Amino acid sequence: VSHNARALTDEELKALLEGPTIARLATVRADGRPHVAPMFFLYRDGLFYFFQRKSAAKQKLVNIQHNPNVALCVDTDVSPYHAVTVAGTAEIAAEDVDEISLAISMKYEGEAGRERNRRYREESPLSLIKVTPTKVMHFQT
Question: At CB < 8 A and 24+ separation, what contacts does 46-49 make?
Answer without folding.
Answer: 46/133, 47/130, 47/131, 47/132, 47/133, 48/23, 48/72, 48/86, 48/88, 48/130, 48/131, 48/133, 49/93, 49/100, 49/104, 49/128, 49/129, 49/130, 49/131
